[in-house]
Each structure stands twice: as C-alpha cells, then as structure tokens.
Amino acid sequence: MHGIGAPPLQSKRVSGRGSDTPKLTPVTENAQQQPPAPSTDLPTQYAPADVEGPLYERWVERGYFEADEKSDKPPYTIVIPPPNVTGSLHLGHAFEHTLIDALTRRKRMQGYETLWQPGMDHAGIATQNVVERELAKENKSRHDLGREAFVERVWQWKAESGGQISGQMRRLGDGVAWSRERFTMDEGLSQAVQTIFKRLYDDELIYRAERIINWCPRCLTAISDIEVEYQDDDGELVSMKYGDGDDTIVVATTRAETMLGDTAVAVHPEDERYQHLIGKLVKLPLTDRSIPVVADEHVDPEFGTGAVKVTPAHDPNDFEIGQRHDLPALTIMDEHAVITAHGPFQGLDRLEARSAIVAALRAEGRIVAEKRPYVHSVGHCSRCKTTIEPRLSMQWWVKVGPLAKAAGDAVRDGRVKIHPQEMEKRYFDWVDNLHDWCISRQLWWGHRIPVWYGPNGEVVCVGPDEEPPSGEGWRQDTDVLDTWFSSGLWPFSTLGWPEQTESLAKFYPNSVLVTGYDILFFWVARMMMFGLYAMDGTPPFHTIALHGMVRDQFGKKMSKSFGNAVNPLDWMDKYGSDALRFTLARGANPGVDVPIGEDWVQGSRNFANKIWNATRFALMNGATVDGPLPDPSKMSSTDRWILSRLNTVVAEVDAFYDDYQFAKLSDSLFHFAWDEVFDWYVELSKTTFQAGGEAAEVSKRVLGEVLDVTLKLLHPVVPFVTETLWTTLTGGESVVIADWPKDSGFRDADAEREIESLQSVITEVRRFRADQGLQPGQRVPARLTLDGTPFAAHETAIRQLLRLQPEGDAFTATATLPVAGAEVALDLSGTIDVAAERKRLAKDLAAAEKEKAQANAKLGNEAFLAKAPDHVVEKIRTRLSKAEEDIARIQAQLERLPQA
Length: 900
Fold this sequence. Notes:
By secondary structure, this protein is of the alpha/beta class.
C-alpha cells in the first residue's frame, strides 16, 4: 500500500490469463441451496443480492455470533461504538464496523469466545430535536404535552422509527451478538448510570456550581467543550472608548452587545500606560454605571490596546478575572440569547443588539475603530450549528482531576496501549489538561439527575436501591445527564454492572476498542475515567486502536453540503457488501484518513468475481480438500512454490492483524489471491491437469488446499462470497466457525527461486510481444533454449502461456531475447511491419533524446538552479530520469527487432 488510501484495485498484471474469464458450463442451481457436501455447482456469475441476505440470517439463526460466558475458551471482547438511535448507516459506520467485524471473525476462527457487543445510544439532544420537529408538524411543542407525556412520545418514536441502523448493520454483515443488544436508556444501563452518579457524588467528584458554560440558544441546553465546533466566521472588531478625559481607556471586542454586562476593565499590572487608572472608576457608555479598572496578569499588554473589557457572566476568561477580583456577574441575556438588560436594547436578539449598540456608541463618538470583515474563530453547536453563547449558569460538574490522572497513568504504565503509538501525545495533551466536565443538560429526554431538593434547602442524591424523599416541597432536579455520561459506562454497563454478573467476569475488560481518532476525547477518555473508577483500577480495554475518517477520493470531507456524501447502501446494492467492505479495509492505515471512490468499490467487486470464477474453474477441474497433502517429494516445483508462498502469506496476515494493519493485510491477500494463485498457479497447473496422471491428482489436492486457506484468510473481510465458495469447496458447515489457518512452517526457497525465474521469462516475453503490437492470442513460432535453467522442465507451460508455436522447418530467428539464463528466439516475419515499427520507434527515440537534452540543459544552468524553487528543480530531475528510462527501453526494442 502506498499513500493514505486504497486506489482502484488492480492486479500487478504481469502474469496468467489477465482479465480473461474461464469458459465454463452454465449451472443454474444456487450454491446456498446445496446439501453440505463438496460440489462443483456454482452459478456462472456471482450475484451478491441473491446470497448475502439469506446467508446472514442463517448465521444468526445458528447462533454463530452469540457469546457464552460459561465457555472455557479465552474471551475476546469488542463493544460497538453505539450509534445514535436517530442514525442510519453512513460510510464512517461501514468503515468502522468492517474493521471490528474482521477482528472478531478472525478471533472466532482462532478459537476465542468472541463477543461483539451491539447497542444504541439514546442521543439526548439529537433525539429530542427529532421528536420536537415531529410535534411542530402538529403545531405543538413539548411544553404542550408536559414532561411525562413528551418522554412517552419519544419512547413511542423509538419503537416505531428508531434503530433502523440495526437492519443496515445486517446488510453489511456485522457479526454482533444480537441477543445482547443494549440501549443506553434501558433499565439495566439506567441503574448503572444512577449507581455511578451516586458513588461519584458521595466521593465528592460530582458537584453543583455556577460557572460559565457553552450554551446553545437553539437547543436550549448547556453543551460540553468537546461538543463545540470552531470555525472561522466573518465578524467585526470594534474598538470603543470608555471613560472621559484623562480617564479614557479604549477596549476592543467582537461581541459589542456584551458591554452591557461589563463590570470592569482589566490591564496588566506592569503596563505603564495605565498605572494612573488602576483602581479608578470609568464611565461605562450607554449605561448609568461606572466600573473599576483592575490589574490582572491574564491581560496581554502586547495585544491590541492592552486593555480588555470584563464581562464575568458571558465569557469564561472574564469569569476567572471576576472571581479573582470579586467582581459582580451581570447576566444580560436570556436562554434564547435575547437581551434582558434594562434599557433601549431590551428584547433585541443578540445580533440585532450588536448592530444597535455599535450605532449608539458611534452616535456618542465612542467608536475609535471598526474592522469589517474581521475573520475570527467562533464556536458553534456541533448538532445544530448555532453560534454558542458563553453563559453563567448553575450546572452539575464532574471533578475530573483524579479521574483524568488515572486515565493518563493507565496508558503511561502500559496497561492500555494506544495504536498507532503516535496518537498517545494527542491523548495525553487532552487528559493532562482536562477542565471539569459539565454533565447537566436542560433537556427532557435522557437520564434525569438523581438529586432531590427539599423545602428547606436540603439536597439528597438517591442511589438505585434508595427511595427518593417525598412530601410537600420536595422536587427532583429537572436536568438530564450528558449523553456521554452514560456511553462512558458502555464497556461494563452492557455486561450487567453494577451487578457482578458472569458476563462481566468473563468479558471485562474488553480486548480492544476500535474507534475514530475524532472521538478520542468525546468517548474514549470518558470510558477510561469511568472504567478505572468503577472497576477498581482495571481499565476498560487493553488496546485502543484508532482509525481515521472516510473521505472522498480527493481527500475531501464527505458532506451533503459538498455534494460528495455517499449512502453505503447504494454501493452495497450495486456492487455487494463484500466489495464495499474490501475497499474500506484496503484503505485502513492506522490513524489515517481513508479516501474512497466508487471506481474503487467497482474494482473490489471485480476481485470478488475473480475469486468466484477461479474457484469455479478449480472445482470443475477436480480441486479437492480430501485427505492429507501429498508428500512434497511427489509435488511439482509449482506445487511446492505456491504452498511456500501460502505459508508466508499466512504469517504476514497474522502479523498485520496483530498490528491492526488492515490495509496491508488486505493488499497482501489481494495480490496473493489474484496474482499468484489465480494468475500464476492456476495457469501453470493447466498443463498438468490436461496431462492427467498422478501429477495432476497431486496438483488438484494442492489447489484445493490453497483455495481452502485463501478463502479462510479472506473471510473476515469479505464474508459472503467466501462463505459460499468455501462451503461448496469443502462441504463444511460454515467458514464462520472453521479453524483459522496456521503457518505450517513449510518453505521451499529453491521452488520460489525457480518459479520467480520462470515468471521473469514469461513477463519479459509478454512485454516484448506487447511492445511489438502483437495481439494476446496471436501465435508466434519460437525456439526455446532452456538448458541449464532451473525452469527447463516448464517448456510446455511457457509455450502455452506465451502462445508460442514450435519452430518448424522454415523457422527464422528474427528476434532473440536472453532472459534469466534462457534464450527465447522468435520468428516475427509475417507478423509485423518491421520497417514501419523501426520508423515509429526512431521517432519516439528522437523525442526522448530531445527531452533529455532540454532537462540536462536546465540542470546544468547554475543561474536557473539558484532561482528555481526546489519543487521545480525536482520536477525537471524527474523528467530527466523518465527520458533516460524511455531511451533505454526504446533502444532495447530496436535491438530486438529483426533487420528490415
């Protein structure tokens, strides 16, 4: 693999039949309807739509994906990153699920008790928004229904419309344990949420405080720092004058409306320009208030005027300054971002107020400078894209300090591995600098905070086995918990925690977490903190395997607004699920984004067809898995070569799986299957099959072995086509539960060298034929001198693959090719116009020599080299190298041509 993604699938195309399809007798009976016995009956073409659905249902019915906590097999556990109940399968899901499914299918074949834990997230804000939009169609709001009826309406929506992604996961082939499917709002997980909240509260790791939070005026709730998306917006920077005369001070802001809530101006304590003002009061324009000038080291004297306005209730940095200087915090906007401050701007939206306030300040001569547009980074709600409003609010918080330290230590001391390792720095940068986590949300859908307030100021946190206080004046907190709070418990809550279940004992901790680097902070850090806290210091997983994001074939982020978003179901309908899965796996380099284009999926479909056609050919020619492999002494060098290569590939694939190198293992399997098995071994074996006898029987058994192992190796990534072919080839129950191949240790270096030499002969002659314009099927008389070469016994195969006729009495050697110790003399008389070919090549040679001269001239010009950018010089060097290669190639072709 090269680069960050998988290019359209191509064979090396140096061998075998190329894209030719074996001419096979049509068979109409479908393989999946056959009894469990070896059969040669396969349809002439692979039709994924006829195979995939019934196969998947059979796997589920037979319980192949279920996990038994009573099993004595070693456990292998992976949780699904729970998709939102509102969601449907997108390419990111398909990508991630393909990788997880490949891992679990392989481990199942290796004899592990595998659990791929499925489930969905209740997705608080997203789900509430969906249902509120449905109510809006009825001209109703959630307040018309009331809290209890609205929550019931959400549950009704979930039952009717939520979870469509589950069916789509089946289309993809996800081998999840469906009987264990969980939902973050089901009874068991709700108990887990209440339990850990109570424990954290009792340990003083959860508290309630008034602080600045990120507020979404559209969703009407607080959101955490990691749910804020920053982007560069066009705004305005306004510099305005506070105070009068010698007490004048200039401040700048992009949010002029917040000046109504200013309670100070801050300067650096060592800034000599403002020493005379520190401690004084200055007049705040448009109000009847005066505010102090305070000295604070937070202020950068080099930035702007060196003076900043302080609005403690509407800016996180200003809040901290206010805390240090005991400044009042004036809230001047409501939850809809409408101005509430008394005066002429009351009732205006924040953006309307911004323009009105600037105009009023301008009228008073208070505007010193205005810059428009002023591009600056602005936070937006990740769900609705509304501009976030910092707002002072009473909220619930998790004190993350000790929890984050434990999460960092678990990686530092090696209990948890992050793959690829270079992602560790990003993880440490996050957990080592975590701020306390705001976990309360002003929603109705979600886990309601289990805290009750009494009539006399009492605060009671209630555990799952405790009765909440009752009586007049008692009320429960109206907020719900951040969705990430419950999904942070996912690795152990899904196994029955806080109960000490058999499943928890068997399957915790998880073996590996496979997820995108983009939610390293959202989800992974949360699970690490909660897992270590709840499970007595045992981390939730041994390995965190991070992957990148799926992008279009040009590396651009996929988005409906960009017009490049793809519904994976469309590609599965068109090319089959295996084709989509193989394309995604072949682009999966650890921690790197994955570009994908439709032609790449089409190439993977061609690969599935190639596997199908080659297996049909093998079956029709007697390939078998019956009995042990023959002794190597009875095998041909071709047989020993392919078995040697097969064992090497088994070892390679295992190593790549263990290192989460999905792209490399897919590429290795692709080239082994297509190039070496189908294009070389099958083709070289045809002469043996045609000759019959003991050698043919040996090769049939070897071919059966190679296909058996190759289909098993391919199965985790392309499960459907391999299941159909493997069961037909072997008569086995299912490749899902077959034994994973092991490297037998068999290697034959002599056979590998022999076949590599043979390949070089065939490849070189093919290249010469193509250069001379000969058609692939055109037969040419030839004399082969193979004595003394390691492949002397392969003359029949060489002639068959190269379309070379016996030399005959009138043979004239018009071109001779020495290659790999052999000599191939060809009689091209009557097959090509030698004079015309020489003329064409001479013209090409002159062009290449001209290109070489021009490149040499530029590279020899010191003045040019001194001025030209590095990339321009490198481009000319590349042109020179290409020209020299062309000259050598053309001269070799001219030398090989017969004399005119």
